[in-house]
Amino acid sequence: MTGTFAVIANLEAGADGYTMATLPLHVTLLTIFESTLDSAQLNTIVGAVAAANTAFDVPSLERALFGVNEDVPVTRVVRSPALFALHSQLLSEVKDHARFRTPQFTGDGYGPHVTDQGERCLAVGETARIDNLTLVEISGEDVIELLRAPLGVI
Predict the structure, then answer these.
(1) Which residues contact 55 (CB under 8 A, 6 or more apart)?
(2) By the 8 A CB rule, do 64 and 72 touch?
(3) Could you write out the DSSP letters of every residue in 66-93?
(4) How far apart are CA 130 and CA 127, in angstroms?
(5) Cβ-based neighbours of 139, under 8 Å, separated by 6 or more
(6) For 90-145, what is each residue's pLDDT tens digit?
């Protein structure tokens, strides 16, 4: 394995590096995975998927607890056809080269949400704009943004 990564749709502007505790609000598209692909190969894959899709909105649904122990506060968002298609395209491109920490949250188990970040959260009834694919590399508690590729505009 060459590294540990995730693909998110960033909902906030900000720095290109943060920690797990200071992540921007985001919708996770591919949960944390280790890959035999290097960052350059993943940049190419994520960039190509971004170029093939257009931006869209997803409304939030309700507050919930997610995660293996159902102890992570989140706001669920609609698993729209566009959002699930984006997840599925990314999954299809990396699945043969990835080992997911929580594979039960991929494919049919994909449950889109925005994880609370301290006091920051997506309010119920608020809409999330999915307009980018962001590839991040995770090293311990450090998270480095490797690529933020814009989706086309509606």
Answers:
(1) 129, 130, 131, 150, 151, 152, 153, 154
(2) no
(3) ETTTT-EEEEEE---HHHHHHHHHHHHH
(4) 10
(5) 3, 4
(6) 999 999 999 999 999 999 999 999 999 888 999 999 999 999 999 999 999 999 99
